[in-house]
Amino acid sequence: MVNMDRQEKIIIYLHADDLAHPSWAIVDVDNQVRQTALHDTADGIAAIAEEKMIVVIVPGEDVVLASVQLPKMNKTKLLQALPFALEEQLVGELSELHFAISDIDVDGTVHAAIVAHSKMQEWLALLQSWNIKPDMFTPAMLALPSDALNWHVAIDDIALVRVDQYQGYAVDVPNLSALLDTAFTSQEKVPQEIIVRHYRENGAMPALDLPVTIKNENFSKIPFIHDLAYYVTRTPEINLLQSVYAVKKSVFPQMNKLWKAASYLLAAWIILLFIYPTMSYFILHSRLSAINSAIDNIYKSNFPQAKSIVAPKTRMAEKLQKLSAQVGENRLLLLLGYVGKGMSLTPNIKLKRFDFQNNQLTLELTAQSPEDFSAFTDYLTQQGLNTKQQNATLSDSRINATLVIE
Q: Is the pLDDT of residue 251 over 50?
């Protein structure tokens, strides 16, 4: 039996007369049906089924359920002996049939589900076209309720009968009465009652004449797929995906997520290792070309007569030195202009000598009074010049001082 605990599931029901439009339901981790769709298109069903356990309910009319008691043997030999033990109950060549079994009972009874290989291949091909990888195939009659006392019948587009855990039938609705009559007479254990659930809105109730209580229940307001999905997760089943059809899927879905995350990290690492440096090269190469172009323009604007760029760093440094010297000369003339203007406004100031170094003008001055000296320095300060007074002395009622101007 497939473990269905604590995993969200999608239940897909294949209708025998309309395989292209399956019904489906979502069952949450608490085994509650939370979403259903009837005769839906298969587009997008793969996205809905992602990260879920996928249970496919196949048409019951294509599957035969049978039981047989065999001597104790290993599973390989049992599967070899089973077809011959059931040969009298089957129609068709044994080589054309697929046999799937349940757990073996204590008394050696083996419960089997038999289906044609052609049907299995048809269903698997259909699901593959939808990008669906199923975890389980189970016949529709094993998706009905099961208990030890009663039989359960569901009537929709087909009639399904579940006799016990591993016995059941699928039949056209008009033939339901005849099938139940045959099953009732052939079963060793008689049910207390037969519970019939009607899912068709306008279908007539078939007349059942059996020496047992028939309990009819109207479920026309409930989608058939809802109850199939509800009970298939709660009752014993036979998974048809055995032997050559066994699906090798990890039983550790969390591990699959970790592997997927690791794959994404590996891809990101490869991008960083190989692609990023390549992209960086082209980006930096483009920026380098732009910088070289700017250097060419600056060089040509400063040396318009040059036919080629020769030692640009050296030539630009030489030109900067010349410009600095020119700026120094211009600075001297500028400062002397301010000094001359200040002396014209304060005639009691006399210039004895001056010196210009490092863009600083040093003046040796005499002034008739402190007020004259202050008026002269105030003027220079108002022109935005920085003035520093040094070595002020008094001689013959005149002030001698050194003034540094920047």
A: no
**Number of domain units in the chain:** 3
**pLDDT at residue number 90:** 83
Burial of 228 (0-12, 13-18, 19+ CB in 10 A): buried
Q: Do 65 and 176 touch, CB atoms closer than 8 A? A: no
What would the pLDDT profile of 101-159 be if each residue is shown by its tens digit? 988 888 888 999 999 999 999 999 999 999 999 999 999 999 999 988 999 999 998 99
Question: Is 36 a domain residue?
Answer: yes
Distance (Å, whole) CA 245 – CA 363: 108
Residue numbers of the domain that contains 387: 322-405
b/e per residue, 307-330, with b = 16+ CB within 10 A? Answer: eeeeeeeeeeeeeeeeeeeeeeee
Model pLDDT for residues 27-61, shown as the tens digit of each residue: 999 889 999 999 999 988 999 999 899 999 999 99
227 and 297 housed in the same domain: no
Give pLDDT tens digits for 353-403.
888 887 788 888 888 888 888 888 888 888 888 888 877 777 777 888 888
Tell which phi-psi region holds residue 243, choosing left (phi > 0), alpha (psi between -120 and 50) or beta. left
Do 175 and 153 share a structural domain? yes
Q: How far apart are CA 84 and CA 382, in angstroms?
A: 121
The most distant pair of C-alpha atoms in the chain lies apart, rounded to whole Å, by: 152
Give residue 398's identity as a one-letter amino acid code: R
pLDDT at 348 over 90: no
Characterize 153-188 residue by residue with b for buried, 16 or more Cβ atoms within 10 angstroms of its Cβ, and e for exposed: bbbbebbbbbbbbbbbbbbeeeebbebbeebbeeee
